[in-house]
Amino acid sequence: MNYFVTAIGTDSGKTVVSAILIEALKADYWKPVQAGYPTDSTVIKELLPNANITFHRERYLLNTPASPHAAAKIDHVEINLNDFKVPETKRNLVIEGAGGLMVPLNDKDMVHDLIPVCKAEVILVANLYLGSINHTLLSINLLKQKGYKVKGIIFNGEENIESERIILEQSGYLCLLRIRPEAQVDHNMIRTYADKIAGKLI
Ligand SMILES: Nc1ncnc2c1ncn2[C@@H]1O[C@H](COP(=O)(O)OP(=O)(O)OP(=O)(O)O)[C@@H](O)[C@H]1O
Ligand SMILES: C[C@H](N)[C@H](N)CCCCCC(=O)O
Ligand SMILES: [Mg+2]
Prior knowledge:
Blueprint: E1 2-7, H1 14-25, E2 28-30, E3 33-35, H2 40-47, E4 55-56, E5 60-62, H3 68-74, E6 93-96, H4 114-118, E7 121-127, H5 132-146, E8 150-156, H6 161-171, E9 175-179, H7 187-197
Parallel strand pairs: 1-6, 1-7, 2-4, 2-6, 3-5, 7-8, 8-9
Helix pairs in contact: 1-2, 1-7, 5-6
Bound molecules: adenosine-5'-triphosphate, 7,8-diamino-nonanoic acid and magnesium ion (MG).
């Protein structure tokens, strides 16, 4: 199975969630579009030092930490949707987007256009800051409008029972996991959450 990890924005915890999913599913990892360093693959390698994971090479590795369409322009490349070849693997594959769903790859295509290319089920990371209900429901609106298959939501942030409840109520999506702010993001933390989500992914 291919899982596409997206979020309601950037710096939302997609890489942390990807590490948790890789640990839970014994999956491989692919970040098709990386803008800036350190790469998310490198971060995950550090979080899961002893795991037997294949890290597939980024299709576009851009130097500037910016929106991919802008980072590509700076590097004098153009991102082309037809140039993405999804890695073949018999294992589960965790694919991480860049930023949120409506982040441009070029003047026409967006990050969410990679979902059908990847033949993946979506996992949406939703943060819990004030204002995140709106960002989450807008993201969900797009997922539903496009008809993408969604495995579920992962909440990442300080517990907010009403935000979590209304988002699940409005979307009808499954809550796969709740991640709280942790003092240490390390292998131990990843393993703890991987144990919690394992049963929900079958
Ligand atoms: N629950 C958490 N507790 C503590 N730190 C967290 C938590 N979730 C994420 N972080 C930290 O927040 C930062 C951003 O997270 P992360 O890199 O996973 O975001 P991202 O959505 O992958 O960003 P990008 O759009 O650049 O790929 C990282 O330093 C990460 O370790
Ligand atoms: C550089 C950053 N960490 C991500 N890779 C890309 C985030 C793009 C966000 C664009 C936007 O929504 O304004
Ligand atoms: Mg990331």
